[in-house]
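ugh ok fine here u go
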Amino acid sequence: MKPPADSYPQLLSLAVHEFRTPASVVGGYLHMLQRDTESPLSERQRKMIDEAEKSYVRLVSLIAELSELSKLDSGQITLRRQPLDVFALVAEVAELVHEARERAVRLEVRGQKDGAGTTGDIPRLRTAFDAIFRAILREKAGPVTVVVDRRVERREGSNLAVLVVAEEASVQASYERERGPFDEKRGGMGLALPLARRVIEGHGGQIWSPAAGPDNEPVGRGSVIVALPIS
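structure:
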């Protein structure tokens, strides 16, 4: 029997509530141990507690993402509508993405610099672009240059800001390939990519990866295309 459509966000909301309570207790005890001056910790114990705190912080971050997911799916969050230029925002985000630089994987923004004016939720779009760029970069072995190619195109009477994120040698091939699903189930990314997809779609946009082909071109999972409506 298929569950009601509205049960999914309710289940997520309940899970967030149930996870938060024990997580807060764990965090409280970790902080108490770190600040305990009556029974000083050994260096080994301190390292273990510091590692436990890193995992606690990660868990809290995942709970926050789960909460955001629940609110987006249930319509509790209304995306803000602030004036922005998609291409300028993308350049700002890319400047701060340092994923995989130690493997000589570089991120370059090319193409049209402006002319993609619209309104949207700037903080959430910023976070979405950051997650998308990091997801692609972290899977590259390097040395390689990943390009964010910005272009405007017109489809069905509407102007779109299109971002093609792909290896330098396969930007156009990725753009021309038939659409395939965007793989948001990537390890180590938490719920950042499912959230990114919802934010893009909440702005009337779309996100996809080039469909896999019979050849060995470096497209598919290693590339992504985003299209957002603009004025």
